[in-house]
Amino acid sequence: MDGIHRDLSRSNSQMIKHYVSPTERDTLDYAFRYREAPIWVAVEVMSFGRITNMLTYMKDPGPARCVTEAIGVHWK
Predict the structure, then answer these.
(1) Three-state SS at 18
(2) How is the chain split into domains, by residue range?
(3) Which three-class secondary structure state does DSSP give residue 35?
(4) 16 and 45 in contact (C-beta within 8 Å)?
(5) Dist. CA 33–CA 19, nearest whole Å
(6) What confidence tens digit (pLDDT) does each residue in 4-52 have?
(7) Sequence-separated (6 or more) residues with CB below 8 Å from residue 38
(8) How many C-beta atoms lie closer than 10 Å to residue 8's C-beta?
(9) pTM for this model (two decimals)
């Protein structure tokens, strides 16, 4: 989780900044700071390695596998 927060914090993305209110920008509670950011916004600024790890450690990878199959991407 710390890695995800680092990716979000070091991003210069206006989309991430859009979902963080000015009063929350200095808080060290990253889960609170980024609580309003949709997953699609967070994924845009996360490293590819971090996304790969998220997929690897999913409890149920079934939905992710269905998405990859639907868009024609090989899971492996």
Answers:
(1) helix
(2) 2-70
(3) coil
(4) yes
(5) 9
(6) 878 888 787 888 888 886 666 666 676 777 888 888 888 888 888 888 8
(7) 19
(8) 20
(9) 0.58
